[in-house]
Design goal:
- The chain has 20 helices and twelve strands.
- The chain has helices at about 1-30, 30-35, 70-80, 95-105, 115-130, 150-165, 190, 195-205, 210-225, 240-245, 250-255, 260-295, 310-320, 340-365, 370-375, 375-385, 400-405, 410-425, 430, 435-440, and strands at about 45-50, 55-65, 85-90, 110, 140-145, 145-150, 170, 175, 180, 185-190, 230-235, 385-390.
- The strands form three sheets. Strands 1-4-3-2-5-10-7-11 form an eight-stranded mixed β-sheet, sandwiched between helices.
- Helix 10 crosses helix 16.
- The relative contact order is 0.10.
Length: about 450
Amino acid sequence: MRTIHSLLSFARRRIVQIVLWFYTAGSKLRQQREVRGERQPRFESDEIVVPAHGDMYAIVVKYAGHGESANLHVLLDALRRAQVNTVLVCNGEVPPEELRALSQRVHRVMVRRNIGRDFGAYRAATLSLLSQGVKPERMMYFNDSLLYIEGTELDRLVAEFIFSEFDVVGLGENQYQHHVGSYALSVSGAAFTHPKFRQFWQDYIPYDLRKHTIHAGELGLTGVLKDLSCSIDVVYDVTRLARKLGSMPLHEVVDAMRWLPFGFRRHALMDVLGQSISARGMILNAGALEGSAAAHDAPATGQRPAGTPTLGAMRSLRDADGRVALLNRETPAVRATPKTSASEGMAQSAQRLSRQLLIDHILEHVTNGSQLHFGFGLFYRLLGCPVVKRDLFSRGLYREHDCADILDNVPAPTRQRLLRDLINRGRLDMQLGRWRGMLFRNGML
């Protein structure tokens, strides 16, 4: 029976792979005419609103399908305060009044058909600027798949992108075939004007397919930058998060777990806490046993023997507890009641081990994929990351009350606007039919 079940599972996977292959091939075939027409980027309009000042540039992509642009104004204003020449690329037709409001905040506005998603817009603007001889000190890339939170942290992020000593600076990264997120990225002028960088954009085919954008776009771009031996940094990475968690007491680490996606809390929380508490209890129990043994064997003066425990002492503890006890080998001899001294040392060890176990589980979860998806709550609450991915709800990672709790320190009007943007996109996992649901589960949507 198990063999039959395995064969059926294998057959289903193969059928899905074949269906996805035909879906991808058919989609590319349908898009051939538009893609060929974009060999040389085309724009419906291209207007320089104000002359360029300085040599800091940013390409910001606005997708018309995302509706009103109030949140994008926050980013554009932050770039303007930093005296960045912003080139706004509108993917699709934006209402005239909205376009005027956007134009007041930028150096240049390009309007094009939505061919190839955000990477198609990046490509079109990059090749256009390079052909016109633009040589920036830094070129930044942003798109509106992010919601930007106004404040000093956003200004600090822009400053990191401008003044970093690294050739490439990303907002976040993904450990899946490691690549830097393209939703917010900064590259040096030397990288931007390098022939291989230009060749990447020239060769990139702007298909409107999510997996193509990830593999040929994001992974391909990071690969080219690595081939150029660019130094790469990420502003909000797991090492910084690990340092922050490591500086927190155990009860604060436990409390921070409520800012992780609900799936982690629902499926793993009790196991994680159970293991941590079990480890802590084991150590404390060992400490109590050690204290009892010390009280029985110690000299009449009350001084506890120092140094490495004897084999006999370890065997006694193992026999009494049924497990290999963890002993504090670094606790110096003290003139105190043996039980109190041992208990204090063991309590400290238990705290450290329990905290580290929890941190290990948390970081393992955050690094499963896109770190700004899985670790959004922690990056925002602990490190001040000033962005929210628009698809946190639609990807089924967080729920409304999760984000309301995470963003409860944001001013009420801003918080409500952010939450409504997330909610209005809906939850794709709740509204898809069988066909689109299969595409969604396999990363095609």
